[in-house]
Design goal:
The chain is of the alpha+beta class. Helix content is 51%, strand content 20%. Strands 1, 2, 3, 4 and 5 form a 5-stranded antiparallel sheet that branches. The radius of gyration is 17 Å and the shape is globular.
Length: 176
């Protein structure tokens, strides 16, 4: 994997959109390879813990990105792919074609926010399956309300979905 510093030099840019391109390139090159490499382990994880297997997969996928960001004194807040509790998910009624949108703000070691990287994870709730490459959206916005507003403009499904935390609290209330 090319270092982020080399990527910046080659692209003559080091803003959030260059970082987004770098991450997209990494995902493009590695998503399927890592899925195949860790398939048996991820399948066993799904059988034991369900959707946590997708989190394990994303940890494998984003580990090198974390390393390369750190080398140029940048870090995602929270770690990739983002804060599950504020993420949003939707899909078909059978839950075989879902997508979850999570995001992380890229910050400098001085605490300056550069922008936001959104990760879209396509998945299935019935069996371990990532049917397509995870998507990456790069935003200049960094505040939660601004990110939500921008993503709501880009996707009516996102706009109509609720944060996981709100959805889960409602689920627990209705279960009682």
């Amino acid at each position: 994997m090319q270092s982020l510093l080399e990527f910046f030099a080659e692209n003559k840019n080091d803003d959030i959109f260059a970082i987004g391109k770098y991450i997209e390139s990494h995902v493009e090159e590695n998503w399927q390879i890592l899925l195949e490499k860790h398939h048996d382990k991820l399948l066993r994880t799904f059988e034991r813990t369900g959707d946590m297997a997708y989190g394990a997969y994303l940890n494998f996928l984003f580990r090198p990105v974390h390393i390369h960001l750190k080398q140029v004194n940048l870090y995602p807040e929270p770690r990739f792919p983002g804060d599950f509790s504020i993420s949003r998910e939707w899909g078909n009624q059978e839950e075989t074609n879902q997508q979850r949108w999570m995001w992380s703000t890229i910050k400098s070691i001085h605490g300056d926010s550069l922008g936001t990287i959104v990760t879209i994870t396509y998945h299935d709730h019935n069996e371990f399956c990532i049917p397509q490459k995870p998507g990456i959206i790069t935003l200049a916005q960094t505040e939660k309300d601004d990110v939500v507003a921008e993503l709501s403009l880009r996707s009516i499904d996102f706009q109509q979905s609720r944060e996981f935390q709100i959805e889960y609290e409602e689920y627990l209330r209705n279960k009682s």
